[in-house]
Amino acid sequence: MSDLKSTVLKELMSSQALLDLQKKYPNCEMLQKLVDNFHIFWEIYEACGKKWELGCGSYLMDGKTYDYCPLMYEKQKLLYDKAKTATRALEVGVYIGHSLFLMLLANPEMPIFLIDIDDTLSWPAINVLSTNFPKAVLTFVKGDSHVILPQINIPFDLFHIDENTRKDIQKKIGFTAYPVSCPKILLLFTMTMTAVRNL
After folding, report:
1. In order of start, what are the domains of the chain with their CATH numbers?
2. Residues 137-160 pLDDT 10s
């Protein structure tokens, strides 16, 4: 494929808001990778039957429309930067897989353990991401994180909690994760803020 044709296809697959943001931050590695791989965003949409929980956003969209949301840029970059140096991640609350997508863009071979109580959207999204990131080891468990977390006996250095967070979940993570060489980082995500805490 010629470079010109490749560029045209990327622009057709990308959101105008994403392309505009990339012009504003031309040296941002995350945005470049997102533009280059934005077809995955649409593959997830197709695999999920063009459905999402209306009003429930993600790292990449606002929940009103299935389109890239530039207002989330700082959160996106924070997650991307933390995932880039992580060796193994735990994510509670996969939803439509957008945070997982960002972590894999940053670190395409990282093992990630995933928990979600509902696999209606998460399972199709994980399948799309597994296909596009074949070197990543993605382990998915469907169920209540309060029940599953105490049974996990694997070390992690990145924890991403993308659900209605409670102190007891954070406490269980602290008890069930063994120390690793680099500092453990906990990211708590809501639609209005992202908190970073070193454990």
Report:
1. 3-198 (3.40.50.150)
2. 999 999 988 888 888 888 888 888
b/e string for 126-146 if b means 16 or more Cβ within 10 A?
A: bbbbeebbeebebebeeeebe
How is 45-96 classified by DSSP, letter by letter? HHHTTT---TT---SS--SSSSS--GGGHHHHHHHHHHHHT-SSEEEE--TT
Which pTM was predicted?
Answer: 0.82
**Token digits of residue 101:** 């997508």
| CA distance linking residue 9 with residue 64, whole number of Å | 26
What are the distances in angstroms from CA 169 to CA 106, 139, 149, 165, 173? 26, 19, 8, 7, 6
